[in-house]
Amino acid sequence: MSSVTLVWIALPFFIGFSIYLLPKLDRWLAIAIPIFSTAYGLQRIFAPSPLDLQLLGNFGVTLLSDTLSGYFILTNALVTAAVLLYCWQRQKSAFFYMQTILLHGSVNAVFICADFISLYVALEVIGVVAFLLIAYPRTERSIWVGLRYLFISNTAMLFYLIGALLVYQATHSFAFAGLGQAPTEAVALIFLGLLTKGGIFVSGLWLPLTHSESETPVSAMLSGVVVKTGVFPLIRFALMVPELDPIVRLFGVGTALLGVGYAVFEKDSKRMLAFHTVSQLGFVLAAPEVGGFYALTHGLVKSALFLIAGNLPSRNLKELQKIPLSISVWGALAIASFSISGLPLLSGFGAKVLTMKALLPWQVIGMNLAAVGTAISFAKFIFLPRGGEETVKPGFWPAILLLLGGLVLANVVYLDAYTMANAVKSLGTVCVGWLIYWVAVRRLTLKLPRVAEEFEHLIGSMSIVLTLLFWMALA
């Protein structure tokens, strides 16, 4: 299995550069990579024991591939495959496919890293490739959004690198396990870098504009998998170093409430989805031991929602209330909204039940409020008018069927969720959310200020989080 893992890690980079040399085969070479990753991810989920590869033992440079890695790798594989199918007939250049596969390979690398220096290299590559994809349309707006993302990402990684070097200074190793003996400032700086990269809490407020202004397939990749490269290491830290578990959980609750608080009042469909990415990442962090399954379901549903939103006649939710959608598009939108709201028969139900059962007592009220907020937000899609003509782009349905099919099949991961008590609680939460939407939120025109998202304030948000982290680490 060690050889297969090394081939699987290297192959996306080899194929990525081969695509540029063989542009007529770009789509076929590209789609082979997520298929391979799907098989590898499934194997790791069901493997009886983790795979631990020591690459540079003296420096603690290691790879760790286990069930947690498997869920994230499978998410990356299915989302990448869906994006490639969506773009199959869209005349994308070989450059686009090359960058997509390089991004896929770099994201995979993060999901099996177990040391700070390998993680740093992978995250930096992701930052550059994501910038190139965001700026792919070559418009002034896309280049500005891409540069904004790159600046925030590089600043965050600078903090992370200083923290990683402090860990090495204290333990003479880059291994994640050294974080338990690292000084407070190292923990704070590493967490700040990853929280910002992952779009967590106020340091992640760069995310709504970046994800909502990118091209539809790029938004699906960013929200489906790229932000999880900042979240995955935090889950790994919480599982390896028990002292860090409360910090990760606290940021999970705070992020879930912050994101959903914005999403409930947002009138732009893509911005609402982006704020919900922030909120759902909070759910992933709130219960680290089951975060892998939640990340899988969120990746599938959020990518599907971004692809659907890109095919709606308007981004403005008020305008959409006056434009009937085709039955088929509305059906796809409703299935995805049902899953993220936690209704039975879709994997979002099992993921929410599993997460709620793994919460600590002090988290329960906050996460239940966030669940109600999710139901309120997605009622905006569910109650849209139906009966219009279908006008979707080529490649839309293969991508959507793959993602929604994954939401149904992923139910097998946690069939024990299907009890009467869990079903009643889920339906009750969603009904309360829909009632609040219908009675109050639907009529409101409240517009929350965007000042915290402005470029000049994003670094200030990072300073606030750094101060908070120092306080939490010293407590």
From TrEMBL:
Protein location: Cell membrane; Membrane
Principal subcellular localisation of the protein: membrane
Keywords: Cell membrane, Membrane, Transmembrane, Transmembrane helix
GO cellular component: plasma membrane
NADH:quinone oxidoreductase/Mrp antiporter transmembrane domain boundaries: 115-376
UniProt topology in membrane: Multi-pass membrane protein
Keyword Membrane annotated: yes
InterPro entries, sorted: CPA3_Na-H_Antiporter_D, ND/Mrp_TM
Transmembrane intervals: 6-22, 29-47, 67-87, 94-111, 117-137, 149-168, 188-209, 221-241, 247-265, 325-347, 359-383, 395-415, 427-445, 457-474
Similarity comment: family membership: Belongs to the CPA3 antiporters (TC 2.A.63) subunit D family.
Its biological purpose: NDH-1 shuttles electrons from NAD(P)H, via FMN and iron-sulfur (Fe-S) centers, to quinones in the respiratory chain. The immediate electron acceptor for the enzyme in this species is believed to be plastoquinone. Couples the redox reaction to proton translocation (for every two electrons transferred, four hydrogen ions are translocated across the cytoplasmic membrane), and thus conserves the redox energy in a proton gradient.
PANTHER family named among the record's database cross-references: NA(+)_H(+) ANTIPORTER SUBUNIT D1 (PTHR42703:SF1), NADH DEHYDROGENASE (PTHR42703)
Protein's name in the database: Na(+)/H(+) antiporter subunit D
Organism in which the protein naturally occurs: Acaryochloris thomasi RCC1774
Taxonomic classification: Bacteria, Bacillati, Cyanobacteriota, Cyanophyceae, Acaryochloridales
